[in-house]
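Crash report, auto-generated. Payload:
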Amino acid sequence: MSVEQWSFIFKTLSILAAWSYLVKGDNPVYTAVEHFLVGSATAYGIVYTIQNQIVPRIVQDIIGRGKWGYIFGAILGLLIYFSFVKGQEWIARITMGFWIGYGAGYSLAYSPPVFLTQVTDSFINLRAGDFAKSFNNILYFLVVVSTLMYFAFTLKKDKGVLYYGSRFGRYALMVAFGSAYGSITMAYLSLIIGQLTIIFRDTLHLIK
Amino acid sequence: MKRRLPLIVVLVTAIVCMALKFLNLGERGTTLATDLDTIVQTSYLFAFLFGPIHLIRLHYSNVQKRRVNWAYSAFLVGVCAVCTVVFFINRIEGPVSTFIIDSITNATDSAIYAMLGFYVCSAAYRSFKLKNVEATILLIAAVILMLGQAPIGDAIIPNTSKFAQWILDVPNSAGMRGIRIGASIGAFAASIRVILGLERSWTGSGS
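Recovered output after restart:
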């Protein structure tokens, strides 16, 4: 038997072990395969990071190109392990502070171009020439504005434009969530079909 | 000191990051911004063992104290140790490593993820009832989308796929844009709170 055939057999066994949860909940076979998944994925993460990321960073960037400043990043990263040292956990918070500060600064500095593009793109031409395009543009604009009205929780929305606007926004959101739900369901179904193909076509050769 | 130093680090890092973007430092500014980004990436790399160490400590303690299902914890630690050795010896792209990752790890991962599909369908069956206007709209949109993405949809009602595509392009896209704009404003506010030290639950000292 070829390696490929063995691979399909193992894939089928893994799929059946995982799907055994559907028959008998948290059964021993499912739990074992679940723990195997976590253990092997952790091992993969460790080896991949060392082999493909840390070693090239040290050999190529720090030693090869003389980017010694990167050692500062390495030291900061290593400080996180102080959270395992009793009484010295606060040192690990320096690394956390560095990450959080960079994340917050990055969000304020680099997000506006993306976010503002979305805002300006929402102000589209409402009279676009043909009826269908104009209708779509008007609806698009109304949905964006009414959705924002719905999310303005600090405003009183018991009457007037805000009341009807936020109500329309809620209905528009339901259409958006419904369509997202429908798409996700179809994506899951195609994934299930893919798994069944492995079992019935590739392993058991029952279908062609 | 122990509480203030991390907050000072947050403030300084955020100011440096924003200064590199907003101050016109030319070519030098771009290089510094790239270097800062690489330093952050390097710090992530060297902190990568944090998760695995936590995981192994937890399961090792389960085995040591003979907690419920400790045998599974021993199995996990064993698999992790054996796979780490095999992946190192064989290298990550070697045939044995590829076989284990493709045939067991990825297959199980996909199967568990696909299993959610069964639960999504069963949840839909239980919750999709015409209780009120909102639920009805949600149901209709979801059904049209599902029919539109399956070949049978157009066979039952002509042009269902076109209508489904219109729902995705106009109401869905516009609704998601509204949500994204709202979330971006929220992220802005949260970032400012973090930089000013108003949000400090991550330090363990509460807001």
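Post-recovery validation: Chain B has eight helices and no strands.
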